[in-house]
Amino acid sequence: MTIASTFSGVHDFFSSGTWGVAWRLALFVLVLFWLSLAYWVYKDSRRRVEDSFLVWTCVGLGLIPLVGPLIYMLFRPPEYLEDVRERELEIRAMEDRLSRRDLHCPVCRAEVGVDYLVCPVCTTKLKQACVNCKATFEARPRRRRRSE
């Protein structure tokens, strides 16, 4: 058996129509994968970046075969725009709630007015009145002395 006869079978396979079809199919799948990665970069960057110029810059980067999407994944913003907006709304709602400061008794949770000195339900002392001017101020818990 000679070397020429060994490689003639390999040569016949690579020159056959089956190899041509398999090669074109593999190339088609690779191009389809490459385009789907670019499309994924486009969809993901639209959810993470507000500026349309930056979105298209990310897509251009995503068109670099295989390396582009990896670079995009390393440098993309960590949060979706929707999550950022939702968090900002929650913070604003908490700030509004704190600024309104619905007053409740710390013991029985009954609603009390701003100027109440004592809870009308459980008679817990809420505020103290100034001895001189009779203005109300927050009651502080008394500290225990070490000797007590």
How far the N terminus sits from the C terminus, by CA atoms, comes to 107 Å
The gyration radius over C-alpha positions equals: 36 Å
Query: How many DSSP-defined strands?
Result: 2
- Helices and strands, in order, run as HHHHHEE
Spans of at least 5 consecutive residues with low confidence: none
Your description of this structure?
The chain has 148 residues and is mainly alpha-helical. Helices cover 57% and strands 4% of the residues. The protein is built from five helices and two strands. Strands 1-2 form a two-stranded antiparallel sheet. Helix 2 runs antiparallel to helix 3 and helix 3 packs antiparallel against helix 4. The protein starts with a helix and ends in a 10-residue tail after the last strand.
Write the layout of secondary structure elements.
Elements: H1 3-14, H2 17-48, H3 52-62, H4 67-75, H5 81-100, E1 127-129, E2 136-138
Antiparallel strand pairs: 1-2
Helix pairs in contact: 2-3, 3-4
